[in-house]
Amino acid sequence: DVFEQPHHVGHKKIEFHITTDIPSVLQINSEKDEKNDLYAATEEINNTGFGRIFPAPSSNDKMETEEEDDEIPSEFISRKDLEKNRLSREEMEKFSVFKNYEPGDPNCRIYVKNLAKQVQEKDLKFIFGRYIDFQSEVERNMFDIRLMKEGRMKGQAFIGLPNEKAAAKALKEANGYVLFEKPMVVQFARSARPKQDANEGKRKK
Known about the structure:
Radius of gyration: 28 Å
Largest sheet: 4 strands, antiparallel
Number of helices: 10
Shape: globular
Helix content: 40-55%
CATH topology of one domain: Alpha-Beta Plaits
């Protein structure tokens, strides 16, 4: 009994992994099953490197490009969906909210306005979470969403991202994205300091 079980496992492996001309050899030398099994396994590793069993490269390529497209876990929006629901430049010009649009000075915080009433923080996390590496504790801590729901700031949000590069990418890809039938206006957030400097500059002049 003890010997029979590995024997069956051996057979299963042979069916899955070995090319068609080997089983005939195995039928003749059944007692050499295990040796052939080992030989086939090492041969397979040598042939394919890292023991990949999928011989069809086309399907692998597809899988890899799909992953590259998204670059992010599925719990966040994909680049395709972002592009699909984003207004074109011509369409943006028809909306008054984009009339005097200025992206602002690059920094790691972005400012989002023209948000629909029903937008919640989780909706913004779904969109902007794709620019965060959640395996990095530093990036997780820097990811910050402040959604304003009351008063004059209603329908606006500030989102902190790990760096300027992530913020610039988010601005480029999410500006004009239609969320709950309203296009988001995405800009770099103005920090308080540059404003003061500008005022001082005016005073001196």
